[in-house]
Design goal:
The protein is of the alpha+beta class. It is globular. Helix content is 14%, strand content 31%.
Length: 70
């Protein structure tokens, strides 16, 4: 049961912008058409901002999945 807790069908890259000034690059994991998890995308070589800003992401953005489906 615990091994399949984070199993996913596919993952997709998206922009997280929950009413803030940043647009953080985020990877979401989808199972059965429902986003089950979000995590930061580690793309320091592709970002236009300073390396100290990467990886970007905050708790407000990661909990938006729960708010969306709740």
């Amino acid at each position: 049961l615990y091994r399949d807790q984070y199993a996913y069908d596919y993952k997709a890259r998206t922009i997280c912008s929950p009413n803030c000034t940043h647009s953080c690059d985020t990877t979401i994991f989808v199972r059965d058409g429902v986003a089950i998890r979000a995590e930061q995308s580690y793309n320091t070589q592709l970002a236009d901002v300073d390396v100290s800003w990467n990886p970007r992401g905050c708790l407000k953005g990661f909990t938006m999945i729960r708010r969306f489906y709740g």
